[in-house]
Write a structure and sequence with these properties.
Number of helices: 12
Distance between the termini: 45 Å
Bound molecules: pyridoxal-5'-phosphate
Structural class: alpha/beta
Oligomer: single chain
Largest sheet: 7 strands, mixed
Number of strands: 13
Strand content: 15-25%
CATH class of the largest domain: Alpha Beta
Radius of gyration: 21 Å
Shape: globular
Helix content: 25-40%
CATH topology of the largest domain: Aspartate Aminotransferase, domain 2
Length: about 375
């Protein structure tokens, strides 16, 4: 039987959400931070227009989409937009390109789980700095920098916490890092803070910083797999060597262009999500529960302990609500994506009803 390399054999695959339900139970998808509503109606029209486009390969550089993103975000001249099959692809390729065995990739304690997987694929060491109140701490990150630190990743706002730091902190971090350390600012949820945060795309001009975004969240386009980033030219040229040239299908490119053109629709999704999220957080606080200060389309709910969190997740699953259980230092939490208003109101009532009952109940083995 053929064997993979020793390094690959030892890897653990990225853990996606468990979407299994008992037969006949209708799923209510709140486990993967997907948008509470689909993309702009213009997306379906754009897809229909290119339904017969199958003969030719797609534009490998996504010129039209890249130009549109440059215009919408008023990107500075110095730098290049690169599009990936989700920002996940860009994260994986960046880490492989800039870190290898003997190098360190540094991020904060509760950072997005895929960074660890991508770092182990690259054979590099994953280092985490403690967070303060579920929020990345710039000084704690800087204290962990060594001469092996090749990449620092700041997720702002964070996943799974949803907390955000002011972009001043990102700028201070970049200024204090060694010039040959690449800073990746992952802004997968950036559209949810754009109203109060000035962008950091200008940092790309320094040559040592990449800013990543995605159309999977605020634009409601997770199914199309379109992420993008603003890259220094030299970093983009390195990425070109590793990325599959025809990675974004023509349908995904056209869908993304239509979604980005409809800014009003995206902004309405963002404000609707934040309003429903605020109501849900308040309902949880009223029920005596603790929630992290989320600036995204999900909420991290803290339970009394790990057992309590596990029992609540299982109980919600029985009712069809698929939420995300957390591991390690966050195993006393569950992460809940913000869905439609009625769904969230019913979920809040269910949690307020279930939680005290579960707390009173012991597991059979206890
Ligand atoms: C912080 C963060 N970065 C990146 C991604 C990847 O998103 P996508 O590959 O859909 O663009 C996610 C997805 O949940 C995320 O939460």
């Amino acid at each position: 039987m053929p064997n993979p390399t020793e390094h690959v054999a030892a890897l653990a695959p990225y853990q996606l959400a468990d979407l299994q339900l008992a037969p006949g139970v209708e799923p209510i998808m709140l486990a993967q931070n997907e948008s509470l509503r689909g993309p702009s109606p213009m997306v379906a029209k754009a897809i229909l227009k290119v339904a017969n486009c199958g003969r030719l390969y797609p534009d490998p550089h996504c010129h039209e989409l890249a130009a549109l993103l440059r215009q919408v975000h008023a990107l500075p001249v110095q730098g290049r937009v690169l599009v990936g099959a989700g920002s996940m692809e860009l994260i994986g390729v960046l880490i492989r390109a800039y870190a290898g065995p003997g190098d360190e990739v540094l991020t904060s304690e509760f950072a997005y789980g895929y960074f660890a997987v991508a770092t182990s694929i690259a054979g590099a060491e994953y280092v985490q700095a403690t967070e303060y109140r579920y929020t990345p701490d710039v000084d704690a990150l800087l204290a962990k920098v060594t001469d092996k630190t090749k990449i620092v990743i700041a997720v702002n706002p964070g996943n799974p916490t949803g907390t955000a730091i002011a972009n001043d902190g990102i700028r201070r971090l970049r200024d204090a890092l060694p010039k040959d350390t690449l800073l990746i600012v992952d802004e997968a949820y950036g559209e949810f803070t754009d109203a109060w945060q000035e962008p950091v795309f200008d940092l790309v001009g320094r040559g040592d910083c990449v800013v990543l975004r995605t159309l999977s969240k605020a634009y409601g386009l997770a199914a199309m797999r379109v992420g993008w980033g603003y890259f220094p030219d030299a970093v983009a040229q390195t990425m070109d060597k590793l990325l599959n040239p025809s990675r974004i299908s023509m349908i995904s490119q056209k869908a993304a262009i239509a979604a980005v053109l409809d800014q009003d629709y995206m902004l309405a999704t963002v404000s609707q999500t934040l309003a429903i999220g605020k109501e849900f957080k308040q309902a949880m606080v009223d029920a005596g529960l603790t929630v992290a200060d989320s600036h995204t389309n999900f909420v991290l709910l803290k339970l009394a302990d790990t057992t309590q969190a596990e029992m609540l997740e299982v109980a919600l699953r029985r009712h069809g609500y698929l939420v995300r259980p957390m591991r390690a230092a966050l195993s006393d939490c569950i992460r809940i994506t913000i869905g439609e208003q009625l769904v969230m109101q019913q979920l809040a009532e269910l949690i307020a009803d279930l939680e005290p009952k579960l707390r009173a109940k012991k597991r059979p083995s206890e």
